[in-house]
């Protein structure tokens, strides 16, 4: 008996495909078009080939922004991952206080990016901000609008305050999945606290830690709103990260061709790193399944 195929399910998928095409594929194709063409307005384009890509690859401006971005992401990961693990290890494992801690940890994640930037912009001001006024009162010369070091510290502390909760909550979920029998066996063997963390807790958190590192890398490498609201990329170009430099190039200077090439290269770097993390996670899952 010949089986009849029913393709009516495609009608349910079609709206999603159209939405993805409208919101992602069509804008991406538009950017690709701008990256290989030059325009003087009035919707007239002139073929430029790979000229804009070559210009961006050799651009000192891009190299400097990339260097600042890599340093920022590295510092963020070096602070937030260990701090998130530490917080997760010290959170209550159950009861009312566990729920209270989970709610408090989730609160920073619920605040919109622009609001986070506005909060820290006001918080760090010397004249009306609690942080800036307190530091000035105790004799510390702090001004994130004039000093590049202060601007960097402010942006880093702001990101740590906003996103460490994500790492902590993911690690906490990994810890909650560990059977209590593991801890009982470690207690019988009189294992030290470090041994319990090294051989029981850390291996069980490995999967969620990779997810946390991947998410935090992607977010930190694409960060725009918070530092832009706080410092505007300044003082000078000290906090002009890749995304801020891209917006300045595309909107401020209206260099659409170089900006389009810049954005495609930016996108490919993030995709490459994400693929590496995904490959590592997949291989770890296969090893655990054996």
Question: Care to describe what's here?
Answer:
The structure is a single chain. The chain is an all-alpha fold and 290 residues long. The chain has a single domain (61-289), classed as MetI-like (MetI-like fold, Orthogonal Bundle). Helices cover 73% and strands 2% of the residues. The chain is built from twelve helices and two strands; from the N terminus they run H-E-E-H-H-H-H-H-H-H-H-H-H-H. The chain has helices spanning 10-35, 51-57, 60-90, 96-106, 113-123, 130-137, 148-176, 180-188, 193-221, 225-230, 242-252, 256-289, and strands spanning 37-39, 45-47. The protein has a two-stranded antiparallel sheet. Strand 1 (37-39) and strand 2 (45-47) form a beta hairpin. Helix 1 packs across helix 12 and helix 3 (60-90) crosses helix 7. The longest helix has 34 residues, at 256-289.
Number of H- or I-type helical stretches: 12
Count of discrete domains: 1
The spatial strand order of the largest sheet comes to 1-2
Measured distance between first and last alpha carbons: 41 Å
Can you count the beta strands? 2
Name the average pLDDT: 87
